[in-house]
Amino acid sequence: MKSLPLLFLGIFFTLAMSWTIVVLTPHLQMSDLTPASSDLADDQDNPIGGAVFYVDGKPQLGKNIEGDDTFPVPLVGEAQRGKLVYESMGCMYCHTQQVRRKGFGADFERGWGERQSVPRDYILQDRVMLGSMRTGPDLTNVGTRYTEEWHYQHLYNAQITSRVEDKISTMPPFPFLFEIREVSENFGPSPDAVDMGAYNPGPGYEVVPTQRAKDLVAYLMNLKQDYELPEMKFSE
Amino acid sequence: MSEDQKDKYPTEGESRPTFEGTKLDDADLHKVHSQLMREKEEPTENFSPMPLLLVAIFMVLSFWAGIYLVRYSGNFGLFHYDETLAAGPAENTGPREVDMMALGKKVYARNCVACHQGTGLGLPSVYPPLVDSDWVKDNPERLIKVVLAGMAGPVIVNGNEYNNAMTAFGTLKDQHIAAVLTYIRTEPTWNNNSFPVSEELVAQVREAYGARAEPWSQAELDAIHGPVTGIWEPPAAPEAPAPVEGEVPEAAEEVVEEADAGTA
Amino acid sequence: MSSNPSIVESINPSSEPLDLRARLGEVDHSMRNPAMLFLVSAVFWLLAGTLLAMVASIKATNQDFLGDSEWMTFGRIHAAHLNSMIYGWGNNIIFAVAPWIMARLCKARIRHTNILIMAGIFWNVALTIGIIGIFKGDMIGVEYLEMPQYVTPIMLITYALVGVWVVIAFRFRQSEHVYVSQWYILAAFFWLPWLYTVAQIMLVYEPATGVVQALANWWYQHNLMGLWLTPIALGTAYYLIPKVLGRPIHSYYLSVVGFWSLAMFFAFSGIHSLIGGPVPAWVVSLGVVSSVMLIIPIVVTAINLHLTVVGAHQEGWASPTMRFVVFGAINFTAVGVIGAMFSMRHVNETTHFTHFTVGHAHHALYAFFSMIMFGAVYYMMPRLLEKEWRNPFLIKAHWYMSGMGAILMVAALMIGGFLQGLQMNALDADGVPVYQFIEIVDNTKYFLWARSMAGLMIMVGHFAFAMNVFWMIFSPAEPDKVTEPTLLASTPDQA
Questions:
Q1: Which chain C residues touch A75 with a CB distance below 8 Å?
Q2: Between chains, do A119 and B78 touch, taking CB under 8 Å as contact?
Q3: R_g of chain C computed on alpha carbons
Q4: Which residue of C has its CA nearest to A130?
Q5: Sign of the C-alpha dihedral, residues C387, C392, C398, C404?
Q6: CB C252 to CB B45 under 8 A?
Q7: A30 vs chain C: nearest CA distance in angstroms?
């Protein structure tokens, strides 16, 4: 193989082919996906959403039921800022945000989701962090599992909520997302203050989440795929 | 010798490049010699033919690859996620016979173990136990309310105080709530030895209180159901009365009285 | 011409003409500055990356270690370790070794090495800014592309500069025959800027919609491994093994098949990291198939290199270069076969999302790529600096510590990860998970301790390596005294 032009062509085409098939084609397939109601409307004369569903094994164009809520919904406000905190702390290195189908792994049995995740669930996310490690549990539906207070405690020091006897949680602590300050003499304890159990500061002091912690918890509380879609209903 | 080469290695009158003509002087030459001269030749390739066995293996692999792609690609459809099924998403089958204990155990594992633990013992001072628990042995409607809307504020269970928050699980189906409560109340090793909970009861409570969004406090629940005693009996099952016009049968009156007593 | 009789005698009549040797000498001489700049940078980043790895590994079992510091939080240490190893150690050492090999094989006179030096300075400055950006919190939530946007243009320019230089060196080659290493290096330098640009556009500058980001990300991540690091490492192995042994590569045809099958199949295989994920089944099937088909280039390369080495084991064991390069080449076969096996859906069900994947990544990046690059340094530096390695003990320390550390780490992570996966999926007769999550975390910690131990060994090895490198750099040149290569054992003929 001596010829530079031929070598170049071969090298070019192998990569071009892979990108076209693996990245571009799914992109074209998914470009029509829009938020959908949990079922298809009966009237199919004016289909919207464009993408093809299979009903009884036959492909059909889909239309949302008028008046029904459509899913997914975009993140707004604090939750959107919270996503940036999630990114900046590197949470995606230990937590996934994808539920596998029932029967493939034990995602369903562990309560991580009522159904598997599908591409439509992610179309409104500007940064998709599916994750690749489960050092910690999957977070796709974490918004349905815990209260805000639980999250504040868990972030401050995971041992407060998750340690069982001698089994320690290896989640890093995030005390820098909180502020330890004196309880105000005039106004008493802050309504935002969180009880940190064994990790409470001494008497006269309280732990208050900073705005970043509030944003992050707002984001986590918004993580849910607890709705059904035409192409994926809840598993039994 | 080409023009290029003449440029790089000036020959100074000779017809082939010389050491003298290169940029190296004598001292450098010595250095170049010692390392470069003991270095082996630049690599070359032999032209041994490819073993036929390898070719055979590659054929087999390609064959497998083709079959795999044809079988497991779901017609290259966008909505086909399960490669083991024929084209089309999985359909939910209709209602079927359900083992409430098994279902309850699964629902418990999926939703409750994070706080109440797999053993049902909870965490001391943090999460109350469900094993041998006065709350669990008490009125099921209390438990249904808690599951539907959550709880907040101080709670006393088995004489110990807990002050945490419980998430609402209102999104669970009635059947699943009934199953999980049946499981925790009747599982023999959990020592509650209480009674199962029916789907209808869950539906009733949901209809009456389902709209409530704030978590319950112990005080509110005690106001409706009285203090937690750990003792509760279901109302006697009423015999199907033959409806007589205008007359309320005795049995029905009894049932109404007992039902009232039960919820008091 | 020199009048030293022993040197004249050492000239084998069948060896290449003296002018060719002179050209090689000139190539080495003129590549010295850029290659040493990249090499020294690479060593610094290697040490930094190894240190970060130790911190991360300790934090994995002792989460309170440096727990109060935001800059040192696990997620950021992880990202900093990853980026400093791949872009700091990996890319710098590639920019040192690959242009040198290409220049030697092209036998062209080297011009404009200032371009390479400039590129090297820009590269390392950008990288430093990028890593500090990660610690600061400007990290982007895309694996392998965490460095903030403000350093991307500089890095791209650097790739372009070095890549263009390599292509031009190839274009003006003096050699008739194009050797297999040249294809690999050329291909790698062409693929990388393209991969990097597309990934940056689709993930950072104009993020694609939804899970297409995940597809693009895994296309990029796996191809960074397979179409950048792997071809360079293979090209280096293909150069060094026959060069040190003085034997030809077993088969040209196997080289061709190995090269093209790698190019064809590797590019699709990244999707095996999305098995079970929210993508259509056909994309996943494609990833699975191409990952298994990678057996072809793996087997072909293994046969080719093995049949080149067979019979020369004693000589190979004596040479530090050969020890590292052959270790790396053997692990290329191992990681490829294991990777192909664990891309099958049924096995992946267990190993996905576990430490197994981390073990696989380090198998490829350390036991394969880095070990070959170490071998290349042991060969290249004496020729660039015209000195010999000062201390064979340090070389042995590096060899044993890195070798054993690599094996221990990979074994611990793969076994631990596999067990972790089995426990994650274990259901009892009622279909309820047998192990609570916290129990699995607790059970896995023993393997993570083993990894920390392996990391300690590797750190010792790297310090030995760095010491030797700087010792050679700062030692005075004494060409008259040292005329033998630093060998780790005696050979039948001291070459």
A1: none
A2: yes
A3: 23
A4: C214
A5: positive
A6: yes
A7: 8
Please give the full DSSP string across C273-330, using - where no structure is assigned: GGTTSSS-HHHHHHHHHHHHHTHHHHHHHHHHHHHHHTT-HHHHHH-HHHHHHHHHHH
| Angle at alpha carbon of residue C421, lines to C419 and C423, rounded to 5° | 70
Prior bond to A5 cis, omega within 30? no
Enter the ipTM.
0.91
How would you class B7 by CB atoms within 10 Å of its CB: exposed for 0-12, middle for 13-18, buried for 19 or more? exposed
B54 contacts C299? CB cut-off 8 A: yes
Q: Best interface-test mutation with C: which of A18, A96, A156 has the largest number of C CBs within 10 A?
A: A18
Q: Which of B94-108, C141-155, C244-258, C348-362 has the highest mean pLDDT?
A: C348-362
The secondary structure element, H or E, covering residue C168 is helix C152-171
Q: What is the pTM of this model?
A: 0.82
From the CA of A177, how many Å to the nearest CA of chain C?
9
Separation of alpha carbons C168 and C22, rounded Å: 22
**Distance between terminal CA atoms of chain A?**
58
Chain B / chain C CB contacts < 8 angstroms: 179
Tokens of C383: 């020729």
Position C359 pLDDT exceeds 50: yes
pLDDT in tens, C384-434: 988 888 888 999 999 999 999 999 999 999 999 999 999 999 998 888 899
**Contact present, C58 and C137 (Cβ < 8 Å):** no
- Cα–Cα nearest to C495, from C306, C243, C307: C243
Burial class (CB in 10 A: 0-12, 13-18, 19+), A106: buried
Q: Report yes or no: B125 at the A interface, CB cutoff 8 Å.
A: yes
**Does residue B139 come out as left (phi exceeding 0), alpha (psi in the -120 to 50 range) or beta?**
beta
